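Run log // design_07
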């Protein structure tokens, strides 16, 4: 089952993992890998660069599940923020 969903034909996990590891070798901190389920497509992995991640300042170092919040910034089209109900919130408002 894992070979089917994580393989190159679907989620492309080996490619995503290699990209994250390459960032770790270059700057000392890996990209964050976020798994999400997309209806009609299946399991998809997104990677977020470390400079776009804002963690709780009270979180413990090297413990990803500590802290009360975790925010990452990402570029989205303005029409998806204005008209799309896709789970994103425009923080400027």
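design_07 sequence
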């Amino acid at each position: 089952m894992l070979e089917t969903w994580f393989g190159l034909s679907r989620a492309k996990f080996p490619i995503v993992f290699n990209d994250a590891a390459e960032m770790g070798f270059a700057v000392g901190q890996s990209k964050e890998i976020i798994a999400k389920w997309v209806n009609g497509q299946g399991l998809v992995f997104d990677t977020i660069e470390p400079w776009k991640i804002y963690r709780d300042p009270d979180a413990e170092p090297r413990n990803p599940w500590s802290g009360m919040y975790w925010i990452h910034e990402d570029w989205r089209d303005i029409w998806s923020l204005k008209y799309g109900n896709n789970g994103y919130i425009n923080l400027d408002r």
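The chain has a mean pLDDT of 77.
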